[in-house]
Amino acid sequence: MFKKILVGYDGSKGGKAALAGAAALAEKFESRVTALWVREPLPRHSDLPGEYEAEAEAADEYFQERQNEVAEVAAQYGLSIACETRRGHPAKNILQVAKDGGYDLIVVGHSDHSELWGRLLGDTADRITDHAHCSVLVVKIETSAAQSTPPMKKD
Prior knowledge:
- The chain contains 6 helices and 5 strands.
- The chain has helices at 13-29, 51-77, 90-101, 115-121, 124-131, 144-148, and strands at residues 4-8, 32-39, 81-87, 105-109, 135-139.
- The two termini are 32 Å apart.
């Protein structure tokens, strides 16, 4: 069903849930998975010498940590998951990579912003679902309240 899966991964709780969901689907459908981390652009100019280089180095270290996390999940599922990084707006980059790469599923995590925040400003998942050329799976994190709620009876 899904042969190419793109997962937006930033190391957040929602990102981790999305990565696990994408890996489970890839295992089931024998799909190829790419984890994409989109980071904010680095400043072009700095008041302090070496600030730009320090920011770039910190971003590279952060991406390496995310790659290690992806590798751990891939090993759990017996998969190989490619990792990529882009700079700029997360939703815009995820949509562009998905379209250019011919992905047939985008998997993203649900943000932990408040419901009010999401209604006022929207979030990355909202933007992606509104503009994607392919199917989108938004993985929500189970909360303790949701876990303790008994399932509804069917009549």
